[in-house]
Amino acid sequence: MAARSSPGRTAGSRGRTASRDDWRWQLGHAIETVAELARHLDLSREEREGALRAERQGLRLRITPYYLSLCDPHDPSCPIRRQVVPRSEETRAVPGDMVDPLGERAHRVAARLIRRYPDRALLLASAQCAVHCRFCTRSRLVGRRRDSPAPAGFEPAMRYLAQHPEIREVIVSGGDPLLLATDHLAALCARLRRIAHIEVLRLATRVPAALPSRVTAELVRALRRYHPIWVMTHFNHPRELTAAAEQACRRLVDAGFPVMNQTVLLRGVNDRASVLASLFRGLVRWRVRPYYFFQMDPVRGAAHLRTPLAAGVELMAALQGKLSGIALPKLVVDTPGGGGKVPLGPCYAVASAAGQTRLRPPGGASVAYVDPPA
Q1: Catalytic residue flag (residue 297)
Q2: What global pTM score does this model have?
Q3: pLDDT of 267
Q4: Can 129 be counted among the known catalytic residues?
Q5: Is 136 a catalytic residue?
Q6: Confidence band, pLDDT 50/70/90 cuts, at residue 153
Q7: Region of poorest pLDDT, from 50-64, 100-114, 138-152, 185-199
Q8: Domain locations in the chain as residue ranges
Q9: DSSP E strand boundaries for the chain
Q10: Per CATH, the architecture of 108-343 is what?
């Protein structure tokens, strides 16, 4: 398979002497056509039709060789395949589907800058990802050949941030910001650090799961000088918890980056309590805190991966009391239209009257909790 150079100002390149273990080699050899995909996987009719359509329109196919190696080549129901291999169901429209489910267009306050909360803003630093997840909430943007601009292209966002001292935190997202060249990403962090009231940076990345070799010693050294930087990872299934991914997470944690994980609830991928328990326990062993358990956004073309709201609540009820508190994320819905995140969960208060509430602990009989006198 011929190598392809990555577009725009991403750091991927052919890499004249790069090995398969080099992240630049991985990007340059990413699977992007149905012919390439069929050489590695026994494609079902639904997958072949979906991959052919993805070549022509919508969210393009893209899978790193590393992430493809996690797929079962013979099983279309493999939880890794379901996340990244297009399917014919992507053409099906259902009520509630949205092109921009989080209302980011309406909340755009400057070029590449989105603000939905009083004290935070989201900076879209890149349009590229190592893999194209079929449930991506930004599928309208990801995979464009036009990638991040030169540093001057971020200046409208920087001016807005500088003029709003109530903004204390910036989430650097995309696409995936860790696909930027290291010096480019470091320069972006340095520019944000020059705005005095921005206290915390967050890097939202799928790289530790999809391209762990990107987390190099060079990258960590370049970024750690701009602490506090929190890293938000995205692991969805225990099969993603490989030795390479563990090394990437360990490198970040050991360098002082708090690492939190955001899992998306996906039909046929992780909609069983046993799968989630294995995933969350594995992350905690790596010192990665399960942070959010997202109801999948109602992005157009991904309804076959979305579950009813009740499914997530039932899963949290099954895990409550069986997993340590540090292994239990918060179940949230990022409300359609951009209203913000709403936490969901089982209700353990079964009755309330006259200063007394009956609570039902997980797996136990109800007990009374008596309020203090007024």
Answers
A1: yes
A2: 0.92
A3: 98
A4: yes
A5: yes
A6: confident
A7: 138-152
A8: 23-91, 108-343, 345-374
A9: 108-110, 113-117, 120-124, 169-173, 200-204, 229-233, 259-265, 289-295, 330-335, 340-343, 349-353, 356-359, 367-370
A10: Alpha-Beta Barrel (3.20)
